Every structure is written in C-alpha cells, then in structure tokens.
Amino acid sequence: MTSKIAEPIGVFPYSSYRFLPLEELAERVRAARAKLRPGLVILAHNYQRDEIIQFADVQGDSYQLSRHAAEDPECRMIIFCGVHFMAETADILANRPACVERRGGRAPVILPDLEAGCSLADMASLPQVEECWNQLASLLGEEEIVPVTYINSTADIKAFCGRHDGIVCTSANARAVLDWALTRRRHVLFLPDQHLGRNIGLRMGISMEEMPLWNPSLPLGGHEPNTLRKARIILWKGHCCVHQAFKPEHIDAFRRKFPDIHVVVHPECPLEVVEKADYIGSTSQIIKMVRESLPGTRWAIGTEVHLVNRLKQELPDREIYFLAPRISMCATMFRINLPRLCWAIENLAAGCPVNVIEVAPETAELANRALERMLAVR
Ligand code: 13P
Ligand code: SF4
C-alpha cells in the first residue's frame, strides 16, 4: 500500500447524495465551490463525464494535470476527478516539502471515489518489478539500465524509478523521455504499458527485436540472455483494456466508407492499430488536433468514448466517429459522478475532507525525483 487513505466518513454520508436530482447537485456543488474559492482547484481528466467537466478548473491529459498540481501557487486543496494514480501524483507534486513550507501546510488531494483505479497501473506490482530488476541487473549491470514508468503506475513504481535514477513519462512526452533515457544508458525497462513503449520505440527507429516483452511470470521474462543483451527497450507485459477494443479492421472499414477520413488514436492502442492510423496523441493532443481541423473534415477517434462524444457535441460542423463499433469506456473514470463530487466538496467545505489520498513520505520523496526529472525534460 503506497498511499494512506482517510476513512470516507465525513459529516455528510454519501448515501444521502446518491439519488438527488442532477440540478440540485449541480447547484450545491456551485455553492460549495464558491465558499472554497480561491484555494480549491478541481482537476478533471479528459475522460470524465460532462456533468463533472462543467466544474473543472483545469481539464487535461495526465501531463497537464500533473504540471498544474506541481505549479499552481494558489492551490490549497485539490479535488481530483480522475483515477487513483493521478490523485497520488497530484499529492506527490503539490505536497513537495518546499510547497508545504511555502503554503504553511499540506494541500489535501481528494479522489471522490476510492474505487476509481486503473487496471493498467495494477499490472505492475513492486515485488514483480523488483524481481525483474534483480534479474536484469545481474545480466546487464544495473548501471546500464534506466527504469522508465508511464505515469499510469502506482506511486511505489514511480518511487522505484526515482531510486534507480529513472524517470516518469506520459503519453504526451514519451518520446522525449525515452530519448533522455537512451542517451544516458544502453537499456530501458519500460513499465507498465507495452503498447506505449513499443509504439514510441518504433518511431524512434528501434526494431521489434530490440524491444522484447518481459513476462513477469517467467524466468528472465521468457527470454534468452542474448535477446536481453541486444535489447534497447524491455517492455513490461501490461496493457489498457479500454484501448484493446480498437482493431485494425475498424480503421479499414472506415477508410472503405470514407476514403478521406482522418484516423487518430491514443498510443495505448496496439501496434496494428497505430500503424494504420494517421496520427497518435495524448488525450489533449487528440482534442487539439480535431479542434484545429477544418470544418467539413471527417475523423475517427480511437480513445475513450466520453472524450469522443464531447468533441462531437462541441464541433457539429465536423463529422466525428468513435473508432470501434461497440462503446469502450473507462469504467473506473466513470465512477466519478455528480453525487460523488457533491459529497466530496460539501464535506470539504464543512472542514471534514473525505477520501484524502496521501502518499507515504518516503515513497513520495523517491517518486518525486522521477517526476521532477520528467518535468525537466522538454
Ligand atoms: P492521457 O495522459 O493521454 O490523458 O492518458 C491517460 C490515460 O489514462 C489514457 O488511457
Ligand atoms: Fe487506466 Fe485505461 Fe482507464 Fe486510462 S483508460 S485510466 S489506462 S484503465
């Protein structure tokens, strides 16, 4: 367990919010927010529901939200509408010792639903990663490997990277971070999303043979020593279930129907999908690209459905499609709803914060090293 979680009791129980009408909840969130201004910042990931996005002080991808948590001098408390690893990251960055001293205290980071996790982050546990590291270190030499973790990982994996001169990346800066890592050492251990590592590695000119997939259930990840000696990026066997829903045949079908369509996908999609797409990007890069496109253009988008539906509504003069024939949504992001937000903000306004995510100090200190290295890469 890397974060201490306050008991979700509060002065107002969640059960009294569950069935309230949305208009009443929205009104109450507005009133509590006005009371907590200017110290409260509501951060919301691009996959959140519209009923949440309307209250976001900052909406963005993981990179933008982390940067905001690290840099906002006015921030005294954060409600994070996203998933657990994002709230942990915000806690680490907003509560660095220098920030706590300047502010005169910690900024509580609240995740409105503690069940809002990320199955990709859960695919790399610290004992598994340590076992992998020990095997790689004795084969290749510890000083020859940089651990790089996608931000979609637990705080203790980020701390592991911090301890071993490693770094964090997001979908927005993975290429720059991998460049940083590979100019320092011969090998990268890339955690936990194989697809992001592989998609970016190939764009950097690294071959498939130089990117073996590490299976944590097998000795040496399932490889011969020589395969690992030749590796540049060793990919952890993790993936995002939401992005597995997109298939190359979905792109083929759209192109048959609309030869002029633009296809943009998130780099968590499998390689066969990325190879057929026109563009890849973080969630905010996708939004920017479609917003900046010409009226009348057609787009098929391979990422979470709430983002795509919001773009459709915002840009009626463009033809926007969800890439898969069936809806693929992030069920954990979806757990954050208006009753949850209202419950969290009213308890905060009553001086009794609920669902506070607090990373243990020694984990936070190490994880922060890896995050600060990332924030310094441009
Ligand atoms: P972004 O950083 O691109 O918003 O991605 C976060 C995420 O969880 C995508 O599944
Ligand atoms: Fe995690 Fe995938 Fe949900 Fe993103 S979309 S938060 S990677 S489960």
Offer a few descriptive terms.
five-stranded parallel sheet, four-stranded parallel sheet, alpha/beta, globular, binds 1,3-dihydroxyacetonephosphate, 378 residues
Write up what this structure looks like:
- By secondary structure, this protein is α/β, with parallel strands linked by helices.
- The chain has helices at 22-36, 50-53, 62-71, 84-94, 97-103, 126-140, 155-163, 174-184, 194-203, 225-230, 241-244, 248-257, 271-276, 283-291, 305-314, 338-349, 361-376, and strands spanning 3-5, 40-45, 58-60, 77-81, 109-110, 145-150, 167-169, 187-191, 213-214, 233-236, 262-265, 279-280, 298-302, 319-322, 357-359.
- Helices cover 44% and strands 15% of the residues.
- A 5-stranded parallel beta sheet has the order 7-6-8-10-9, sandwiched between helices. The protein has a 4-stranded parallel beta sheet with strand order 3-2-4-5, sandwiched between helices.
- The longest helix is centred in the last third of the chain and has 16 residues, at 361-376.
- The protein is globular and about 60 Å long.
- The mean pLDDT is 96.
How are the elements arranged and paired?
Layout: E1 3-5, H1 22-36, E2 40-45, H2 50-53, E3 58-60, H3 62-71, E4 77-81, H4 84-94, H5 97-103, E5 109-110, H6 126-140, E6 145-150, H7 155-163, E7 167-169, H8 174-184, E8 187-191, H9 194-203, E9 213-214, H10 225-230, E10 233-236, H11 241-244, H12 248-257, E11 262-265, H13 271-276, E12 279-280, H14 283-291, E13 298-302, H15 305-314, E14 319-322, H16 338-349, E15 357-359, H17 361-376
Parallel strand pairs: 2-3, 2-4, 4-5, 6-7, 6-8, 8-10, 9-10, 11-12, 11-13, 13-14
Antiparallel strand pairs: 1-15
The structure holds 1,3-dihydroxyacetonephosphate (13P) and iron/sulfur cluster.
